[in-house]
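Last lecture ended with a question: if I hand you only a sequence, what can you say about the shape of the protein? Today we answer it with a concrete record. The protein is Neuroplastin. Below, first the input exactly as provided, then the predicted structure, then a couple of comments.
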Amino acid sequence: MGLLSCILLAFTLASISNALSGQYVTIQPNFRVIAVTLGSTLKLDCYLDGSQGSFPSWENSSSTQIKTFTMKNSIYGSTLTIENYSEIGEKIFICSSENSKAEITVITVEETREGDHFYYGNKTAALTCAISGLEISPKDWLFKNKSLSGDKKFKMENSTIIIDKPNRDDAGPYTAVYEIKSSQRTFEHQCVVEYTAGPLVMDMARSRNLEQGDDLKLSCEVKGYPQAVIIWQRDKMNITRNGTIFSEYMGYKDGQIEIKNVQFDDAGNYTCTAYSERFGNSSTKNIIVRVKDPIAWVWPLVGILVEIALLAIIIIVVKLCERRNKDSLSEPPREKYE
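The predicted structure:
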C-alpha cells in the first residue's frame, strides 16, 4: 500500500504541476489531416499557451525555415515553412513543448491541371483537374462559389468539366471538389483551374452633353479573366487623380471616374483602355464629352430677337420711303414766275 500511495501521490503532483503550468500546444490549420499540393508551400503554425519564455519545437522536419514569435497573453509560437514541398505520401509533423505536444498529418496531392482560353466561335471549352496517387472521388465543380451540378450549360466527366457555348462571362477560376480517403479520415480537397479570356471593354454612349458646373461620371465595363488594368485618358493624355475621383466598378479598380463641377477644359475625347499584361493585348472604347455654357440657350434667342428687330426697322424704313414717294407724286406742280 505504501508503494501504491507513493505512485498515486507522484502522479497527482505531476498532474497538478501540468495544470498549474497551463501549457498546451495547438497547430494551425486546426485539422488532424491536411492536403498539400506537390510543389506548393507548406506553412504550419504552432502555439504554446502558458509558456514561461520557451518556444515549442518541431520534430520530424529538417527544414531550416522555422521562425519563432511571441503573442499577447504569454502565447509563444513557432512557424514551420517548407517551400516547394516534395514529400510523397503521408507525413506526420509533431510540435511539442516540455509538457505537451500536437501532431498533424500532411498528405501530398499531385495535381494535373489543364485550363482553356476563350476564342470567338468556340463551341465548347474543357477544363481538367486530375489527382493521382490517392483514393479519390469527384464531388462537384464550383464557379463563383456556386455549384454547377444540374446546370445544363456544364457537363462533368470525371476530372473534366465541359462548358457548352462559352462566352467571356464564363471566364474565371473553376474549382474541382474531390473527396480524398486517407488512412485516418475522409476529407475534401479543392483543385483550381482557370478559363481565361482577353479583355473586352463594353460599348459606351458615343457622347455626353453637360453644362458648366454639372458633375461628370463615366463607367468602364470590362469582361475577361484575369482582370485587366484600366487606364483613363482625355485627348490621348493620361488622366491624373488631381481633381478626378477614381473608384471601383464591377470589381475593377479605377473602373469609374468622376469629376465634380466640370468646366470647359474638362471637355474632350475620353478613352477607357483595359490592358492585360498576361496576354499583352488591350481593348479600348471612347466617349466624347461636351461642356456648354449654362446660359448658352440665351444667345440663339438674342440672335433671333436682333434679327426680328432689324427686320422691323427695315420694314419701317421701307414704309417711310414709300410714303414719302407717294406724297411727292401727289403734290401739284409749282408755277414758275418770271
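Comments.
1. The chain has two helices and 25 strands.
2. The first helix runs from residue 2 to 21.
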